[in-house]
Amino acid sequence: MSTTLTVSTANVNGLRAATGKGYVEWLATTEADVVCLQEVRAEPAQLAAHVRDPEGWHTLWAPSAAKGRAGVAVLSRAEPQAQRIGFGSTEFDATGRYAEIDLPGLTVASLYLPSGEVGTPRQDEKERFLAEFLDHLKTLRQRAADDGREVLVCGDWNIAHHEVDLKNWKTNQKNAGFLPEERAWLTRVLDEAGYVDVVRRLHPDVAGPYSWWSYRGRAFDNDAGWRIDYQMATPGLAARAVSATVERAATHPERWSDHAPVTAVFNLE
């Protein structure tokens, strides 16, 4: 058995589009043991066979009932002991927002939290999701603790937590993704539910590292990004994290999504 665990999370911004831009090549060369995908925006049957069932991977697909929207997936080299779609929510379990697998001693989940939009029903939806999901995070951690397991929730959380988590924070204080109430909710994930932000634990004093850049203007070239893709771990697992990186493309044309993969390595010895 390997003494390390490598986990990557990536919002693919439409997997069919990403497939033609470099996702397949990235997956073929990644050293990750588990890959969490968000914003797949496709039913499994709509994906090419080598994308739907890549060689050497076990796959869990959780598409949205709304065609062409959301969708998450979890890919693992080891066969999961169990897998689940949704978190027991009447409203959200069919929306392609959450899926999780059980590996020995560990539950890994892929999350695509709603982005929201101030002053619209989309923000109301986001607030309802936040309320339900915080309860799930607490329950998940307690259930895992009772079973002697760790938890890792990876994905696009669509909230920049602090000012260091986005370049242009001053002009975004009234925008979804950096609202005071959203940031306070993320604090509750850490303080109340007891999770640890793996990247920030390893990089406490740096701006970013950003994981999303708008396609508008020269955001990527100017590194005017947001850090909204997180790996949130239970404390026991977080303490074993030895590295965390954002796999930022070298140039704008080499990007296969407006997000970059966030990869963490854990020492299991």
Automatic annotation (TrEMBL):
It comes from Streptacidiphilus alkalitolerans. Keywords: Hydrolase, Magnesium, Metal-binding. One of its GO terms (molecular function) is double-stranded DNA 3'-5' DNA exonuclease activity. It is an enzyme of class 3 (hydrolase). PANTHER family: EXODEOXYRIBONUCLEASE III. Belongs to the DNA repair enzymes AP/ExoA family. Coiled coil: none annotated. Its EC number is 3.1.11.2. Its cofactor is Mg(2+). CDD domains: Nape_like_AP-endo. The keyword Hydrolase applies. This is Exodeoxyribonuclease III. Residues 9-259 form the Endonuclease/exonuclease/phosphatase domain. Signal peptide: none annotated. It holds the Pfam family Exo_endo_phos. SUPFAM superfamilies: DNase I-like. InterPro entries: AP_endonuc_1, Endo/exonu/phosph_ase_sf, Endo/exonuclease/phosphatase, ExoIII-like.
